[in-house]
Design a protein that fits this description.
This protein has 340 residues and is an alpha/beta fold. It has three domains: 6-101, Nucleotidyltransferase, domain 5 (2-Layer Sandwich), CATH 3.30.420; 114-206; 210-329, no CATH class. Helix content is 55%, strand content 11%. It has 13 helices and seven strands. The strands form two sheets. It has a five-stranded mixed β-sheet. Strands 6-7 form a two-stranded antiparallel ribbon. Helix 5 (114-145) packs antiparallel against helix 7 (173-206), helix 5 packs across helix 9 and helix 7 packs across helix 9 (221-231). The protein starts with 5 loop residues before the first strand and ends in an 11-residue tail after the last helix. 27% of the residues are buried.
Length: 340
């Protein structure tokens, strides 16, 4: 086989498509492999550049193939699509990945370590429980609304109203039995979510970068541990603005002819991180009336000019830049004006 210098691998659960080229860019390898065949086949190849989309199990394979001496790089799927020459299929996808990874300035996704993925597994499990609780509460509201019972907004208010509701005789016996079962399931979900919250808090106390991040207003254990596990080495981003763009908190741009046109936020990157950054900014904005620091004055003025939601996103973007600085420099958080 002619020496392969670059390979694009289309990753799937059971079948993998490989497309390799030589130093002149000529195709010298096209192979479809089952999952057990991938590692032995790549092990016999000389060290080369391997590209994969950052999708399910990609970080595992990146670690595995790196141990074989290859230079493995993960690429976001949205930047691979423009390099696909024809219809979408496994062969064309592998070709496009190999073409994209060979670009000199192609941005890559950092490969996550086992420790990072372990922390994110805790977050994903907790996220699933929260989604189940939300679905359960929404179903209970819908079912009871059919009998003229409107539950109050908010989990705390709902829990208080549920017990008296189960004792009323206005509902059929069968409905009360179903509501009792739903209440038990809600209680069990609350306990499991609380257990996960305790586990996340322990992880935050055991991680020094997370402790520094929690000094920033609006950042708790969930946000801090998710950031540390998702970002890894923050120095892969050139500055805080690039990190905020990666999270999707910068305006979408459609400029031409020297005229700048900025729209809504791009919503790129990690939805989970962006959600928690916005939740944290919302918690900070609730305390604006009691704060007089420079950031609070800036947010208050922006809120008066542009409204609550735009000020909220702007504060979340500012927090993203601050969090990048704390991670990249290794220094503790210093509020604005603290050094003067």
């Amino acid at each position: 086989m002619t020496h392969v210098t670059r390979i694009g691998i289309d990753v799937a659960k059971h079948v993998f498509q490989l497309h390799g080229v030589d130093a002149q860019g000529q195709t010298v390898l096209r192979r479809r492999l089952a999952r057990p065949q991938l590692r032995p086949f790549v092990a016999q190849l000389p060290p080369c550049l391997i590209g994969m989309e950052a999708c399910g199990s990609a970080h595992y394979w990146a670690r595995e193939l790196t141990t074989l001496g290859h230079d493995v790089r993960l690429i976001a799927p949205q930047v691979v699509a423009p390099y696909r020459k024809n219809e979408k299929n496994d062969r064309n996808d592998a070709d496009a990945i190999g073409e994209a990874v060979g670009r000199p300035h192609m941005r890559v996704v950092p490969i996550k370590t086992l420790a990072q993925q372990a922390v994110l597994t805790v977050h994903r499990a907790r996220q699933l429980l929260v989604a189940e609780r939300t679905a359960l509460v929404n179903q209970a509201r819908g079912l009871l609304a059919e009998y003229g019972v409107i539950l109050p907004i908010g989990l705390t208010a709902l829990r208080r109203a549920w017990a008296p509701l189960l004792e009323t005789t206005a509902l059929p016996v069968l409905v009360r039995e179903i509501c009792t079962d739903l209440a038990e399931r809600l209680r069990a979900l609350d306990e499991r979510i609380t257990a996960y919250d305790c586990r996340v808090a322990q992880l935050a106390q055991q991680t020094e970068p997370a402790q520094r991040l929690m000094q920033v207003p609006g950042v708790g254990p969930v946000t801090a541990t998710a950031l540390v596990a998702s970002v890894g080495d923050a120095r892969t981003f050139k500055n805080g603005r690039q990190f905020a763009a990666w999270v999707g908190l910068v305006p979408r741009q459609h400029s031409s002819g020297g005229t700048r046109r900025l729209g809504r936020i791009t919503k790129r990157g990690d939805v989970y991180l962006r959600t928690w950054l916005i939740h944290g900014a919302r918690a900070v904005m609730r305390q604006l009336a009691r704060r007089t620091d420079a950031t609070s004055r800036w947010v208050s003025a922006l809120k008066a000019r542009r409204g609550f939601n735009k000020a909220l996103v702007a504060l979340a973007a500012k927090h993203a830049r601050i969090l990048w600085a704390v991670l990249a420099t290794g220094r503790p958080y210093q509020p604005a004006g603290a050094g003067t």
